[in-house]
Structures are given as C-alpha cells and as structure tokens.
Predict the 3D structure of the following.
Amino acid sequence: MSQSTEHRRATGTGHDPRVAGLGAAVSRLRRELAGHPRDFADRGIAEEELAALAAMVAEGAPEVRRLHRSLLLVAGAVGSVSRLAAALHDVRVAVELFGEPPAR
C-alpha cells in the first residue's frame, strides 16, 4: 500500500491533506514569483517546475521521486532570490511530508 493511501486512510477522508498543503505552498510561490519585479536567468525553469508541481497536485497523488526532483530544480532556480525564500521553504516542507524517494 502506498504512503499516500495509508495517509488518506489514517485521516479518515478521501483526500490527502499533504496534497492540499503542497498545493497551497506551490500556489504561494507561483504568486510571489509572478510578482517578483526582476528577471533572473533560471526564472523559466522555476515557472515550469512549479507548473509541474501544480499539475501533480491536481492529479491528487504526486510521485515522491518527481516531487523531490522538481523541488531541487525550483530551489536551484530561485534559491538566490531572498525575497522568495520563505515561500520556497514552505514548498520544501510540504514536499518533505511525503517522505524520502525510494532508493534506486
């Protein structure tokens, strides 16, 4: 049984609250990135990966390995923009709630 299925069962609902939390964190970072006045080299990468994260949230059962990959790409793209640090931190915390990706 997947960790996501176990979490839904433990909460007694048909949805996983971690997915909702991730969605909120991704939305916040997307809004703050859109409102950021300066352009930077990897902005497009951040926007693409945040869109991918939002799509995974919309599907309802994100793949842990893909979540971590997207987080790394977003962090690398916006990590030097201090104005986005708090929103990026929230995304990281939300991704970490899904656990570590399985070993290859």
